[in-house]
Structure formats: C-alpha cells, structure tokens
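Checklist before submission:
- one chain only
- standard amino acids only
- sequence pasted in full

Submission:
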Amino acid sequence: MQKNTLSQQQQLKQTAAQTVQLMRLLELSSTNLEQEILKEVEENPALEVDNDVEIQEHEYAEPEFENSLDDMDDYYDNDEYDSYDCRLSENFPSKDSSYYTPTSSSDSSMQEYLLQQLSEFELSERDTLIAGYLIGCLDENGYLSVDIQNIVMDFLLTYNVQITNEEVESVLKNVIQQFEPAGLGARNIQECLYLQLNLKEETPTIVLARKILSDYFEFFAKKQYDKLQHQLQIDNDSLKNAINEILKLNPYPVFLSSNFENKLNQITPDFIISIENEELVLNLNNYLIPKLKVNQEFKNQFSFHNPNLSKEKVLEAEQFIKVHVAQAKSFIGILNLRELVLFNTMYAIMDKQRAYFLSGDDKYLKPMVLKDIAALLNLDISTVSRVSNSKYVQTPFGTIPLKHLFSESIGSDDVSSKEVKAILTELIENEDKRKPLPDEVLCKKLKERGYVIARRTIAKYREQMNIPIARLRKII
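Returned file contents:
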C-alpha cells in the first residue's frame, strides 16, 4: 500500500511539472520557443532535430469546443510522440503558397526586445516573474493600461502567487520604467513625459518643465499659459523654454527611438489567417521552428550488450536511457499539446470575430473577454491569457496583437468598446477642424447611430486614444 501511494505521489508530481512546463511554453514567442527547443535538444541526448521532415499538408478538424483539455496524460507518454512536427494547421499551406509569407524568426517583437533588457537586471525570481508579467501588460504604445490592483489579482490567478500592490509598483518603477526607450510603463501621458524629462541633464529649464508636468499639468494640457506664468511667477522666456522642452518629448514611448522602431518593423506572427472563397483559413506560423524526434540510436543503445560492464553498471545505463527517453517523449508531447491549445484558442477567437477578420474594420469587433474564450474551450482563464499575451496574428489587412481583439461590452451585449472607439475616431477624423465636435455632440451622433453612450464614457475613450478635447483640436 505504501509503495502504491508513493508511486501515485510521484505520478502526480510529474503531471504537475509537465503542466507547469506547458504553461511556460505557451507564453513563449516563436523565437523564444525555438531557443527553448534547441536548448532541450542540447541537454537531452534522447532528442534530436528531425531534418528529414518534408513539408506536407495537415488536415485539422474544427475544434470541439465542449471538450476539456484538462486530461493531458495522453499527450505525454504516448508512443506516437516519438516525433514532433509543429506545423499543425487547418489545411496547412506549402512554402510555395501565394498567401503564406512567414516572417523571419530572428526579428524581435516589442515584448522580446524588453525581455532582452530584463535579462540584464539582477533580480530575484519573484521580481523577474512580476517584471515579465508587467511587460505582457503593456499596450501597443508602451503604456501600462491595466490597473495595479487588477494585475495583483490576475497574477494570483495565473501563477497562484500572492503579491502586493507595493511589489508591483516597485518593479514597475525600478525595472520597467528604466528600460529603453524612456517613457515605457507609464500609466498616462503625464507620467510618460515626466519619465523622459528625468533622463535629461539637470538645468533650471528642465527643473521648471518637470514642475509644470508634476504640479500644473492641467494648465499645460489646456494651453492656459497665462495661468501657468501667474502660478509659477516666471517671465515669458523661462515659460517658453520650459514649454519647448516638453513639446520636444513624444507621448508614444515605443516610437521614441528610431533604433527601437526598427526592431519593431517586423514582428513574427504566431498565427496566419487568410481568406479563401470568402472563408477564413487558420494556420500556425511554425515553419521555422525545429521539428523533433526521439533519437532511435540512443533509445536502442542497451548497454548489457557490453560484456565488460558489471550488472550494476548495466542497470545504471538502462535507467539513464529510460529516463532520458521518457523526458524526450514528454517534451514532444507537451509541444504537441501546446500547438493544440494554441490552435483551438485562436480558432475560437477567429470564429467569434469572423466579421472583423473578413473586413478588417474595428467596427465589426464583437465584445470578447478572456473568460468568454476560456468558457468556450473549458480552459482556465490564465491559459487563454498566456496564449493571447505577446502573440500576433497575420491577417490580410496586416499583423495585429491578439490583445487588440479583446474588449468589454458597452450598453448592449453586442456592442464592444473597440467598435465605439472606431466610430468615434471616424467622427473626429471627418469633423470640421474649424468647429470640432465637443463630447456632447459626439454623444448625440453616436446615439443617432444606435449607440447610447454616456458623455463621460466618450471622454474616457477619447483620452484613452490620446485625442484632445474639441477646443484643442481646433485649427484656425
């Protein structure tokens, strides 16, 4: 009985370790996954890269969303996973397919570039984990658009680790906001500009500019320069010089540096969606990721054929072979399961946002949150979060981050915040710049189109899109 209990405990530990490894691999981009695979091959003699795999088409059925992926044992120790070919797809295209243009895996996404900088910091494992999570929370402009308290709660759900607001604030300030380009990790434009000024040489003008941003930002934003001059008791030249220093700054962190912008020119998409005969086709962009198989020579290398070895050495060698072959099969199984989770999750997202992917228009984005996809696939929210975080999808109208596809519902369950923002942008772009539309008028125009949105919500969305109030949009 004791032996059976011990065996069960070991099996449970193994399954838990495999699950942790799967969760970690789900977070990796294609570039980092390639590095992880090659590292595993180097460390495990039972694994080898299969260079003889030919490009072939794979039929992949539409996912059964009601099936759970919780029972993962079959993916680890099954003999069919003596090899791993990650080109899992729905009607996988060949290299010569006209619409299949994989991006080089050597190019860096924003997250990859920031993770490189993170590796230069000497941090505890806990702080490294927090920093990595914060990097994933940055939006496409480099802003931290998620509330600290929400990060604390999501972190607990994702890693089952309790952290505090103070810990997150500390890592944000001392790590993320120290990255290049300056301004990353800011929660608003005021903080973004202030972070950039902090890097400038200490001069009376810079000190004054920082004071304007920290204490009188509202006056600056509304161009109420007379009030600024009165409050600060300074002359025209001093105010003008300070304002000019602020105006040199850029409110969008990721475009502050041409070097950084060059690094983002090409992003490796994890998924490719194409349109054939007015139908969407989904593929995983894994063309450049190494394909693995169990090294059969190592697997069949039984040492008892050597008469010069003692029985103990024979048993030790057999155990060595057995352990490494089991680890190889387990790793191959985890890679296959990773592909299945990625494909099923992206398919569910694509199915939910079918109208958007066919048009490329944000107005057709449906409300969708992580919980919706998790419930559809019977997965944990944290699993869907890992799939969608730092991942990109190549579409007929460009490559976009998966995060862009998620938004809360507004008013009606069928209206998403992204849809409202798209219409707001359209209204503001087409307004008469000599008489720009105030929020009250924007609210009425949205109502005319069937969107009943409060004026304060209009103001919030406008601020999130970095669109100034009507008075500041006016062109004489």
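Reviewer check: The longest strand covers residues 271-276.
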